[in-house]
């Protein structure tokens, strides 16, 4: 509740600041007959939607550091930190390598289960590392204006990845598809958001008769395996070289 | 059309046999042996001719054309040649080999055959119209009394004749001919537009306004981007400008939709009208668009000078200086490159080669090594005569491709003959285009020389204005000049008053840039 209150205050302060910046200049009214009357585009031999792009990615390398949050992970720690490096083969495609290290420990839900039912989920194998080859299809280049003097360019992209998820005892192949958005606040720096759905073979952490302290500690191989889906949100900072 | 063709071929089947029968009754004066051989050969040929005509009737156009072509070369069938060539021409028309067909019709016209020459002229005018070949069309028209043309072709002939008159600057006669094109004809709207143009050239803007309004009325229900409708709107705006009705002209230019090819010209011309109507801020708004990165391929030196003149009127000397510098920086090299190119060659083929490379660049995304700036060649490509000739060349290429796509036809004598004709016409047209390009480049050189002179005068006015401004400043009468702030960032933040070609510009914003500066004059 208090958290939401803080959020609301922050948004209102930001809005007031931007409002001040937006209306700092003199308000000039244009004669209505001189304003564009239609929403169609001018005709060119070779139509290009943007000239003199602020953010040119073609044939450039981009590196990013990100925090990953596993939204649907029940037992293992939901956080991870990662590094990514991409090469933009064109303005519409990029190929990259992602490496993310999982935080040790359990999720808060697993800790609650331990408190309430005395279940030791740290006996179950947990993910340690994720390494993926990632392809990005940059679908839309856009811009948004927060004030008269602050324009942020955006890139919306789809992603498809393949790689491995390493657990403490075994490495499993994994694939992922997702949607991402980058907000360039300079020509090089951007905030990057990636929402990915991972699919990989993984051990099921729920093993009857092995998770209580008085029960024998199971071997990692005792845990069953099945295809597991995890939704992951990555938030990171990118630099375009 | 098909029915007529069948009827004609059917009647032609009878003609050779009848003429053959008539000849049989004539007394023979030669000896029997050669007569026998000759008769046999002639009969064989007649038989072949009848077969060819039957093939034509049966829709076997390619086979019929090949046979007719062979027969048209036989001396024994000299009397039937006009008829053979005429039908061969119609077969070629069916095969969409219009240029090759045109040559058959020209041959028939030359024979002055009482029946087939007239028919051939009609057909020639149709193929020439399809090809857009003025030379052939003029030849056809010059060979016959226009009243002899069938009524269904009269509109086309009047329209084409009007075009010729317009080119010869006989504006009154041109307007009359265009006026004869009847409503319902496919040439009606083009004729109406050209009539308006001729009236404007005759300095009768009121008449032209009527003509363009008539055209607009007729196209009222057409979509907004309808070419005829937009052309009429543009014509109307120009006529109003010529009539010096600035406000109405500005309004008419504003009606030209952005998603049409004429919009750019409309914006530029509207800026002139705005200057004349003393709407300086509005004119400068237009220049934000005209001088945006989207139009960097456009040749428009005049618009930069016009922008400088507008700045002069509102005493924006710093801006003026920048625009004049931009003019010199952009068009100085253009001028010298045109001069160097004209000095280096006199060959039409060299001029054509250059325009062909530019055409390639314009129609594909690939670049090419050009000796002349692309903006110049792009402008030349957009000139009516060059555009038309390039279109004609395109038609020739299509016809050649049609021949070459059929190996059997290509290898036949008719195929070889067609390729030879097409190669020859192509070569001559390229030379003609080369000459046109050269003429346009010469005009551009003269125009740039004049514009440079004007730029000199404008610069002189700018210096005088600055001097006056300094005098006022010394005497304390000066008003605040935002131009004094050299930091260009200031202008960008204040609403794109100065357009530095460094920002990011979006296609959907073109046409929405506005000048927000104020007048700096006292």
Automatic annotation (TrEMBL), chain A:
InterPro entries: OMP_myx_plus_Proteobacteria
Segment forming the signal sequence: 1-24
Keywords: Signal
Protein name: Outer membrane beta-barrel domain-containing protein
Species per Swiss-Prot/TrEMBL record: Bdellovibrio bacteriovorus
Lineage: Bacteria, Pseudomonadati, Bdellovibrionota, Bdellovibrionia, Bdellovibrionales
TrEMBL record, chain B:
InterPro entries for the chain: TPR-like_helical_dom_sf (IPR011990)
UniProt entry tagged with the keyword Signal: yes
Origin superkingdom: Bacteria
UniProt keyword terms in alphabetical order: Signal
Keyword Signal among UniProt keywords: yes
Signal peptide: 1-21
Protein name: Tetratricopeptide repeat protein
